[in-house]
Amino acid sequence: MNILIADDKPHIRRVVRGLIERHDGWDVCAEAEDGIQAVDRAKQFKPDLVILDLAMAEMNGFEAARQISKERPGVPILMFTLYASPQVEEEAQRVGVQRVISKSTGYMLVPAIEEAFAQLNHEKAG
Question: Which of 6, 105, 107, 126 is the most buried (most CB within 10 A)?
Fold first, then answer.
């Protein structure tokens, strides 16, 4: 499964890449440092899942998610952000984000990816 990571902080991308690459069968197909790059790389690399930060330069995670959802319908998008709140979760769902994970609970990211892939496989099988 190929995963796109979009975050404006290189050290966050490094940590997330490490979590993903420790998992059998998961690869990081691309990284992006802003929302515009995230949308472009989602078109170019056609990832199976996208991890987006909310607060990025050029284009925020909401707008990037909206565009990626249009371009790649059905691809799970997870928002990994410092700004998790009920309002953020509501807006995220409206633009096609499957789940919001707070960076303060980063240990929840891998289970969220597993859950997203399990749902994808279930939908394909059904």
Answer: 6
